[in-house]
Every structure is written in structure tokens, then in C-alpha cells.
Write a structure and sequence with these properties.
By secondary structure, the protein is mainly beta. The protein has one helix at about 110, and strands at about 5, 10, 20-25, 35-40, 45-50, 60, 70-75, 80-85, 90-100, 120, 125-130. The strands form two sheets. Strands 2, 4, 5, 6, 9, 10 and 11 form a seven-stranded mixed sheet that branches. The protein has a four-stranded antiparallel sheet with strand order 1-3-8-7, with no helix packed on it.
Length: about 130
Amino acid sequence: QVQLVQSGGGLVQPGGSLRLSCAASGVSLDDYNVGWVRRAPGKQREGVSCMGKRDGNTYYADFVKGRFTISRDNAENTVYLQMNSLEPEDTAVYHCAADLLRPCLHDSNWYFGAESRYLEEWGQGTLVTVSS
């Protein structure tokens, strides 16, 4: 059984940093394309970032470029999202997601658009609150 277990959310002041973790069990994450998706209160889900399984290419939504970094540690079977220079607008529930086949590409609807709901595996979500 595949499980993605997230940790690392919480309350942080504007300008601060957090690192989210997404640990997998039941699968090897290096077989998967992975991504992070968020949903802010009262807003639609939006893709944040993704990383390809073969090439390791990474892509980011414009609103997090230069501030967030996605990475993976295959030995730990974990994907991370390092979030720096956090802004109140980043307040949301963040989910990691993984998919065997749907590729991570620039502006991919699978990770950055409405089609993200079809991604195979999802973490439970973790709340990030950016507030002073």
C-alpha cells in the first residue's frame, strides 16, 4: 500500500522559511514524478512545483520562483519543499503528489492546472500559515 506522509508545516512570520517533507512508503519515489500542490482558503487548488523522475528537471509556478525549491532524497525516499521568503499569500494547505506516468513539464496541466486532481498518490496535506 502506497502512503505519502507529510510533515513540516506550521506558523511562520512573513519573510521566514519552512521545509515540508513528504516521506513515501510502499513505493520507491525515484520511480515517480513528484510535485507540490496547495489550496489557500477560499481559492482553487494551484500547482507549486514538480520534479521529473528521470531527468530530475524542476519547474515552479511563477509566484514561487526564486523562493521555493523542490528536491528529493532517494535514500530517504522523501521529497522536500524548501520555502523561503514566505509571504502571507503563501498561506495554504500544501499537498505532495506523485505519479508514475504523468510527466512533470513546464506549465504542465498535470501539476500546475486543473488536471492535478488525477495525480495518483497524495499526501495528507499540511497547513502553512504565514502571519505576523
